[in-house]
Amino acid sequence: MPKFLRIGVHQSNVSGYTSKAWCVRRVGSAVFLKWGAVEVLGAGDGRKVYWALPPREKTIRCGTAQRANDYVKAAIARRRNHRYEPLAGPIALRRRSAQRSTELKQALATILIVDIVRSTEKAAKLGDARWTKVMGHYYAAVRKELKTSRGKEVVTTGDGVLATFKAPAAGVRCATAIREAVRTLGLEIRVGLHAGEYKVSGAEVVGLAFHIGARVAAKARAGEVLVSSVVKDLMSQSQICFRDHGVHQLKGVPERWRLYRVED
Question: What is the pTM of this model?
Fold first, then answer.
């Protein structure tokens, strides 16, 4: 399975940074995709890459083997043009030892997911050099607002950011502040927020709450900040206004969820 690692701001010769990996495999007329956030440890030939969270997967039925082969070639070419490098080694899932599993602690937080709208299109238009500079300014703006709002950055995923907040109001205000800050760079983002429990062990975090937050963000359009009903209920005494965005089925998440849009 060909694998590609997105070269982040820190480049590939630095240990301990997060990035995004993408894998593709063709079997007959079907194409199997796998992608997600990864953690890179070590440098050079000795580096190891781990999935930071369970990767997302997708199967595409192309009808014929030739169409599937053409799809794979085009997909690989797109990644190579957008700062992905071929990755020869495996991408492993971290296995917790029995001792480490006992160290898992539960935490409750508001989870914020930020994602750039049409990032691939913009990267292709600007070219690698200019896009790298824009992304540097983008992350600087996001981290400035996170610091102001006392948010904690958990992981970056290529052009996305996942962060947590102790208070939902702080997360919502940070989301709107990030939206306005990155517009000066010519970027539009979509944001999703959810509140729930997750487990933490050292620097690792796991839990369904993160997946729900990502699915909420995926429902947002350019410039929208969407929150789950959990976040809205926690902010019943807040002066922040919300508009009902309807009930949605979130991919891979049990039950249907009512979402709300943050009003300016």
Answer: 0.60
